[in-house]
Amino acid sequence: MTVLQRKDVNPIAHLSDADIEEIGRRLDAIRQEVIETRGERDAKYIRRVIDVQRKLELGSRAVLLASFFPPAWLLGTAGLSVAKILDNMEIGHNIMHGQWDWMRDPKIHSKTWEWDNASPSEQWKHSHNELHHNFTNVVGKDNDLGYGIMRVDEDQKWYPIYLAQPLWNFINACFFEYGIAAYDLELGKNLKYKRRRQDPAFKARAKQTLHKIRKQATKDYLVHPLLSGPSFLHTVAANFTANVVRNLWTHSVIMCGHFPEGVETFEKHSIDGETKGEWYVRQMLGSANISGNKAMHIMTGNLSYQIEHHLFPDLPSNRYHEIAPKIQAIFDEYGLRYMTGSLPRQVGSAWGKIIRLSLPNEMAEKLKPKPKPAPALMRRRSRPAAGLRQAVAALIG
Amino acid sequence: MSTPHVDPARPTGGRVGLRRRLWGVAEALASPRRPEDYLDMFHPLRRGADLRARVVAVQPEAGGAVTVVLRPGAGWRGHVPGQYVRVGLDVDGIRRWRSYSLTSPPETADGTISITARPVPDGIVSAHLSQRLAAGDLVHLDQACGDFVLPDPVPEKVLFITGGSGITPVIGMLRSGLQRLRDVVLVHSDATDTDVIFGPELRDLAAGGRIRLVEKHTRTSGRLEMDELRSLVPDLAERESWACGPAGLLDEIESYWADLGSGHRLRTERFRTTLVAPGDGGTIQFTRSGTTVEATGAMTIMDAGEANGVLMPSGCRMGICFSCVLPLREGTVRDLRNGEITTAAVGDGVLVQTCVTAAAGTCLIDN
């Protein structure tokens, strides 16, 4: 984890290798405790969420059959938006992480689940579960840092085109599901070169995505509106609105996970030979939470517990709130900052960073919020060797 | 939307065509789910649904056994007495499948079927069945199968040899086939007379002259020996025979019949393959590629496969992305992160993460 040492305030300078391994052991123990107590109540929880989501979707679509009547339009659109958010966040995202595979129910399994989204689950699982979760916040390896279209880190080179990135980000937020689909296809890279464009594997994946988009669009913009007869256009508008609301919401939640100011990023080679303990610490420093009530946690798919989710992506989402205090205690004890804040604050911080980094570094630097001193420096642990370790490390390079 | 596919073998009358078209609309509307997923919320036992059954009653039997009366969904194709059925129960949130003999006659007045099970020590599913399952619960079901059945026409002379819960497939045959059977001998072993499942019913049949019942109570008079069986049933070599019970007893019966040269007259039914105690490492068979690998307990199934030229699905290689999940058809594996043991009974297909799982005995991986 050498990259952090270039920072003004290295948040882990005070940790010895033994500390980091101890953090790993304690996190493993927390994970194990949850696994041992997984059972009927968890299974009931996910089945209930799925049941509520389906009934809400059916009900909302039924109400929208009369969407020429404005209150019906409003009620149906609101219901459908919530249903789509639940489908994507608490249900789809988490099932595809394998959080519920232990139930051995073939219908609620990462192998079989498909979500109401432009990106086919198979492709999303590769770019999200495999690449993003493994290489979290490693510049050059984790494409989630700006999704390849934005500059969200000082270490990414500035080009004038980045001046427009706040606008890109807004457009991306409105049509986020298509952005994700393009991202999972690595469209930018694959369309650029003829050889890549014509690669049969890429063509097959593109076809799969188009098929998925056609199916979802047929449902929202053709079949359902046709069934509403005289409400055809109202229903098209309602479904479009619900999709945009869902996109704006998921985009906001996801920005809060890794983009707020203070979240650490890592250099490409800093993870060579990384131990499990170091991997855990990278997840801890590279993620941020959203505070809020139970409804907020469910609507974010418990990604409000992004830190807990990144430590244990395959533990059932309904358990994150139970382990959060224990995780936070480990942060406190080892003098690390547990990043959390309300949704408006975190969204504001992430947008602030995107706007700031649309500018070249000299200007961006001036706008940078003053870094809060890391808790470690305030708490001053009795570890005389820490400074020495850093000095020696610098000397032997 | 694509036009619904029309099967030329089927009548293409207006009603059928309309139905298919409506189903096509329903499929388009349900995407990415299936219309079934929504229908299941309201009518899980309808025709066309995955096969399930509603528990009608759970009745205690002798020796701690229970009979579960089930009303199967509309897709149930019926059974032949002596067959068994796989039942999937959600125990502590985990779906577990087990096979149980059907103990009801194929036709019942109310359309129910029943299975009977005796709790086995440490049996997660049998304990759930006897203690927690209640009327109204839904269970998952497969179609009946097995060839431990009476032929048609039935033979003149029949011998059943059963031990413990081995009586369960035989009671089905007795309950439905007795009017056809003329000469039946049943030799049943159990610990004591009160342990005999369906004891009173069997004794009534014997008292009424419908069967000849020989009860062997092993706690007081030891296990059934072949010489003893020979003197109890002198004409056993002439009888068509069915045996079901503990593995040791069946092994002895099979070799005895083979020595007599009457092996073709004997059918046996084994409830369980012997489960290997979880060890360290073992033989991994990759069923599709036909590769067999000896692996140590420290080697992941993925590494073992790849080292032997099996193309394995892979992803993060650290247990977080679930790209490498494959069905464990049979056998025992260990999760290297926490030592947790997972065992799959035949046909189970438990999905395991091959990048963090090692063999803990012989195991069959579907790849």
UniProtKB/TrEMBL annotation, chain A:
According to its UniProt entry, the protein's GO biological process terms are: lipid biosynthetic process
Q: Which residues form the Fatty acid desaturase domain?
A: 73-340
Q: Which InterPro entries does this UniProt record tie to the protein? A: FA_desaturase_dom, Fatty_acid_desaturase
Please name the GO terms that the record assigns under molecular function.
Answer: oxidoreductase activity, acting on paired donors, with oxidation of a pair of donors resulting in the reduction of molecular oxygen to two molecules of water
Q: Which GO terms describe its cellular component?
A: membrane
Q: Which domain of life is it from?
A: Bacteria
Q: Which Pfam families match?
A: FA_desaturase
Q: What is this protein called in UniProt?
A: Acyl-CoA desaturase
| Organism expressing this protein natively | Nakamurella flava
TrEMBL record, chain B:
- InterPro entries to which the protein is assigned, alphabetical: 2Fe-2S_ferredoxin-like_sf (IPR036010), 2Fe-2S_ferredoxin-type (IPR001041), Beta-grasp_dom_sf (IPR012675), Cbr1-like_FAD-bd_dom (IPR008333), FAD-bd_FR_type (IPR017927), FNR_nucleotide-bd (IPR039261), MRET (IPR050415), OxRdtase_FAD/NAD-bd (IPR001433)
Specify the 2Fe-2S ferredoxin-type domain's residue ranges.
Answer: 282-367
FAD-binding FR-type domain location: 48-151
* Cofactor(s), by name: FAD
User: In the UniProt record, does the keyword Iron-sulfur occur?
Assistant: yes
Q: Which SUPFAM superfamilies does the record cross-reference, listed alphabetically?
A: 2Fe-2S ferredoxin-like, Ferredoxin reductase-like, C-terminal NADP-linked domain, Riboflavin synthase domain-like
Name the Gene3D superfamilies for this protein. 3.10.20.30, Nucleotide-binding domain of ferredoxin-NADP reductase (FNR) module (3.40.50.80), Translation factors (2.40.30.10)
- MF annotations from Gene Ontology: 2 iron, 2 sulfur cluster binding; metal ion binding; oxidoreductase activity
Keywords (A to Z) from UniProt: 2Fe-2S, FAD, Flavoprotein, Iron, Iron-sulfur, Metal-binding, Oxidoreductase
Q: Which CDD domains match?
A: fer2 (cd00207), FNR_iron_sulfur_binding_2 (cd06216)
How is this protein named in the record? Ferredoxin reductase
Please report the organism this UniProt entry assigns to the protein.
Nakamurella flava
